[in-house]
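USER: Fancy drafting a protein?

ASSISTANT:
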Amino acid sequence: MARRTGTLLGGMPYLRFGTGSPLVAIPGLTQNFEPTVGVERMLVTRMLAPVAARHRVLRLTPRPGLDPNASMADIARDYADALRLEFPGPIDVIGTSTGGSIALQLAADHPDVVQRLVVVCAAYTLGPNGKKVQRRVAEEVLAGRPRQASREMFSVLGDKPPSRLAAGMGWMLGPRTFGKASPDLITTIRAEDAFNLRDRLGEIEAPTLLIGGDRDGFYTPELFRETVARIPNARLILYPGKGHMAAISDPRLLPDILEFLDGSDAGGRAGGAHSPSARSAGTRPSTL
């Protein structure tokens, strides 16, 4: 699969691959905003290969060198400015984890940019435990302790957080996970800590799919449900027994996303109006 990396006008690093209609993927929290290369590029393209078979994927990372006081709205504005220059009209957007927070802000603030929205393992705000963990990660990074920062993060990524086994794995991977952390990581954590879109979810015009796990260490099932209930044209798929990383890596995830984007009942925007067929706010039965 042909892959191209580069930087959009404004300084946002991208990885482009696949064929078909355009689709922007906003990744989760990373230690810095360097271009996606090497092993990471291979893993990303492999993971998104089913989507790239039908869509021209633009994996777009926030620009490096953020203002230390940047908010989630500021980060989303960078995306909106770049996408308006890159595409003639609204496009489909997938945001994962912290990328989901950015995507929700983007859809609320810049409805002209987002055609359909997929949010994976994110909600209108972090849960109390998610905020606590990310604050600890920021503290450890600032103290120059990447192993401890990684241990904190990994401890809540599994299906039964906190997990000592996952925390131990995080400690071992610390130099790779946070060994090259930039100030942008701290800025993004602080922006997400302050992020709360609850009272503005009703402004999101794009048909929306939210997918999460009911054992996510950063979000509660109630946060997922309330997020979907407050978006006018949204539905929820909740994977029983799945934590944050397990939901992101679940084999049902990409087929569920493609069904939403390309299925016979896929809802789109026509003249800014919602498609009635896309209206749903249910939870997937635990048998699926």
